[in-house]
Amino acid sequence: MGPAERLDRYARLAVEVAVNLQPGQFLRISADPEHLPLVRAMGRIAYERGARYVEVVYRDAHLRRALIEHGPEESLDWTPPWTMALIDHLIDARGATIVITGEPEPELLADLDQRRTQRARPRLAVEKLLDAESEASLPSVAAKTGINRENYTARLRGSDIDNGRECWVLELKPRTRNKFLLAGTLWVDKKSSGIVKVDGKTAASLSMWVASPHIVEERAEVSGLWLPARTVSQSSTFLAGDSQLEIAYTGYQVHR
User: Going by C-beta distance under 8 Å and a sequence separation of 6 or more, which residues neighbour residue 57?
Assistant: First the structure.
């Protein structure tokens, strides 16, 4: 396999599998200038699949260094209003995002004031991204998009032991592209038919900035009810980098 074919296959994997780009959908690609050949391959494949528009933003680590060294203090974590407007629009439009990572110069910022380096992120945009991740893990949202026939199709894959319980293992597929539905694997307790664990990725990106996160929800039996015990969400974002959000649920009181 030559370099061109390898590049094309990698680009197709990102566009067709990772974000599962749909006709009419917006795609935002975030990359370093060194990633230009891969970006172009992804953009071409996206348009082949019917993308409405592909927008590319190139990160410039040297300009970030200049900001940290010489920029005013109030500009370090400032978020341009047009960036917030763009985030809001693409969340509403359910746009997809691909973030290409890999620092070409990993030591470029090592000699700078680390306090200023840590601040040099658009604060409001980062907070909005974290809110989007938190929202995807809230029990109230999960209740509105429950695991049922209306939202999912399921196929039996076999059986397994999870935390000492014999479980049926099902392949779970959402019927619609919804950022609150998961495509992945479901463990169901054989005795009680309660959901023990869900492991998968959201059926749609949370926004153009946050790729489809990988979510694992573990449940525990409380007074005969299977309730969320722990949710872990791992994702990659353009502004905040790789992140992990963990929520532990305790202190349930069941009133009959």
Answer: 28, 29, 30, 31, 238
Is the pTM here over 0.70, yes or no? no
Shortest CA distance to 84 belongs to which of 43, 120, 42, 129?
129
Query: End-to-end distance of the chain based on CA atoms, in angstroms?
Result: 64
Encoded tokens for 92: 């509403």
- Which is nearest to 145 in space by CA: 215, 192, 242, 87? 215
Count CB neighbours of 50 within 10 A: 11
| SS3 assignment for 114-151 | HHHHHHCCCHHHHHHHHHHHHHHHCHHHHHHCCCCCCC
pLDDT tens across 77-101, in order? 888 888 888 777 777 777 888 888 7
Q: How many CA atoms lie within 13 A of 109 on its CB side?
A: 21
Token digits for 217? 């929800």
Residue with tokens 């997809």: 96
Query: Burial level of 236, CB count in 10 A (0-12/13-18/19+)?
Result: buried
pLDDT (tens digit per residue) in 41-64: 999 999 999 999 999 988 888 998
Say which residues have a Cβ less than 8 Å from residue 71's Cβ, sequence separation at least 6: none
**What architecture is domain 3-120?**
3-Layer(aba) Sandwich (3.40)
Q: Parse the chain into domains and list their residue ranges.
A: 3-120, 139-248
